[in-house]
Amino acid sequence: MNSLKRIGFLVAWALIGAVIGLAFAWAQVSGLLIRWQNLGRPPENSVEIIAANARAVWIETASGKIYISSLEGGWRQAEGYVPQGERASGELPVRRRPKPLEDAVDSYTSTQSAGGEIIYSLYTIRADGSVYLWQDWPKPSDRNNLLIAPVLSTILFSWLALVIAGYRGFVKKVQERKKPGTVAEEILRLPRGTRW
Prior knowledge:
The protein has three helices and eight strands; from the N terminus they run αββββββββαα. By secondary structure, the protein is α+β, with helices and mostly antiparallel strands.
């Protein structure tokens, strides 16, 4: 591989790395990598979400009973205090939005501050009574990923290109010698200080 082809090969791999890194960072910053989490179904058919926060959701069933589920999973009948949340429009005040679930019966949004970060939660009941959660807590550092991921990916792909180019050069030298034997035998026969 002559020098010009080698430089073109390295530049092409570096550009591929930058594009892949940028695509990954954009997907992360835009919320595409955040998935809906299935919280299961309460023992009775879910009718309405009464209240929710970043850690739990309270559901009213067709019989009027209230059930609670925490993010750890499992439903139990609520006893005592049930927080009264303000019914929101179902819209999240952030740019990142989940893909809407089909056959949604009821939705509830919750915005909560925790440790200096804002946690956005969207709970949804589907027609089969199962409850889903989409949760996001954007950080200021997320925007840095738009710079860091492409740079790291470019470095990784450039390194891979160097390894591939070096290996190809090594194989070519071995083939030029035209001596029979395995690749390991050929490596042992190369004089010290041989450059690929």
